Amino acid sequence: MATAMRLSSAVRNASMARSAAAWKVGTVSGARFYSAKSATLKETFAAQIPGQIEKIKKLKKEHGSKVIGEVTLDQAYGGARGIKSLVWEGSVLDSEEGIRFRGKTIPDCQELLPKGPGGNEPLPEGLFWLLLTGEVPTEQQVRELSAEWAARSAVPKFVEELLDRCPNTLHPMAQFSLAVTALEHESSFAKAYAKGIHKSQYWEHTFEDSMDLIAKLPTIAARIYRNVYHDGKVAETQKDKDYSYNLANQLGFAENGDFVELMRLYLTIHSDHEGGNVSAHATHLVGSALSSPMLSLAAGLNGLAGPLHGLANQEVLGWLTQMKEAIGNDLSDASIKDYLWSTLKAGRVVPGYGHAVLRKTDPRYVSQREFAQKHLPDDPMFKLVSQVYKIAPGVLTEHGKTKNPWPNVDAHSGVLLQYYGLTQQNFYTVLFGVSRALGVLPQLIIDRAVGSPIERPKSLDTLSYAKLVGAKL
Predict the structure, then answer these.
(1) Catalytic residue among 205, 273, 355, 412, which?
(2) Domain 128-308+426-450: which CATH class?
């Protein structure tokens, strides 16, 4: 068996080498392009693996004993906040600058990544390619990836029936997680592992599962939406359209081109936000035990469903709606300020403001604000959001209990969705989940490719910590 695997690997490597020789490789703005044949995403990533493994080995061998941080007792009891202990290649979050995807800001991505037909927003297919490989794909490569996802989009009949049998009162996120878990039945990784495969092949089956899973998410999300809120009918995936168009179309909103553009932006900016947030970390943690991408993503989705994470965007819209009912058309500074103070004095937080890491306005918020200024400048709810953005930081600073008085991504996304008629707030986190899959699954593929170990940090009880710091309890 080992001989057969070595032969298979040798044949695969030789094939890749022959293919690479047939390509004329060049660069444009740091992105590789191929004039004769376009490299697929899988081929591009496969070619990077040996170099990445050697890079990690060298780093660990030469610097593995160096201290990279220290942990305080507050951090141990405060949710491990700020402890440097995870490896996440796709993005890094700076407290002042915001998120960078493989070193590129959101404006960079909006400029460099291929756009949808006739549009200005980046296609999330391009971001997925960037997160997995670190390279900006060509337009041709992105178009081919769109086509591949469309070709893989069919959802098994039993999963459709499972969703159709769910009561409308079951939260859409619970249904979403249920469907993703059920796709375990189709897992290439789980089947291959059960048969016995070499660990060097783990990433390939993880890649195939991730591609299949991502491809099916729009149809699953749309089926939940159409079942719960409409007639249960879901349009077929259009094989010649991009991922965001198909999602918008299956939800029932593709006739509005601006909504399709919003989906392209939404899916791109919500995809990844470092590895320490609950949905990313949960996916990574469960994946580190060699669970399939389906089970790993389902764990992440269950974390995303929490009100302190992805559910926050619907809470923001609910709070804004209540404010609008209370103050009516009076959007004066004084009126907004009074309502903000009434929220704080009632012991509530101002939803959509503050962030565990950021100490400035979230660049994802800014990108959505710019979209609104272009497409819906006169919308009453957008005007309200703008006024809150003007007043809230000062009130929160005066209040003194918020480290970051600036808005995060959740402060804006719901207002955009409701403007185009997607008013069902319980569904918003499902859209977030579709997007988050695009960010967490590339890292799972990378983890399997470089042989990342199972995650197992050390825990202590309170008495042990007290002894460690010389305290008497």
Answers:
(1) 355
(2) mainly alpha
Instruction: Quote the percentage of the chain above a pLDDT of 90.
Output: 77
What CATH class does 311-420 carry?
mainly alpha
pTM of this prediction?
0.89
Listed in sequence order, the DSSP H helices in 78-171 are 106-112, 124-133, 139-151, 157-164
Residue extents of the structural domains in the chain: 128-308+426-450, 311-420
Beta carbons of 237 and 218 less than 8 angstroms apart? yes
- The answer to whether residue 395 scores a pLDDT higher than 70 is yes
Residues facing 27 on adjacent strands? 32
Catalytic residue among 205, 410, 412, 447: 410
Question: Do residues 436 and 84 touch, judged by C-beta distance below 8 A?
Answer: no
Q: Is 355 an active-site residue? A: yes
Residue position matching structure tokens 């409308």: 168
Q: Name the more confident of 139 and 349.
A: 139
Q: Which two three-digit tokens encode residue 74?
A: 């507050």
| Residue among 186, 189, 429, 413 nearest 302 (CA) | 429
Summarize pLDDT for 200-259 with one digit per residue, the tens.
999 999 999 999 999 999 999 999 999 999 999 999 999 999 999 999 999 999 999 999
Active-site position among 309, 362, 412, 447: 309
Which pLDDT score, from 0 to 100, does residue 18 have?
34
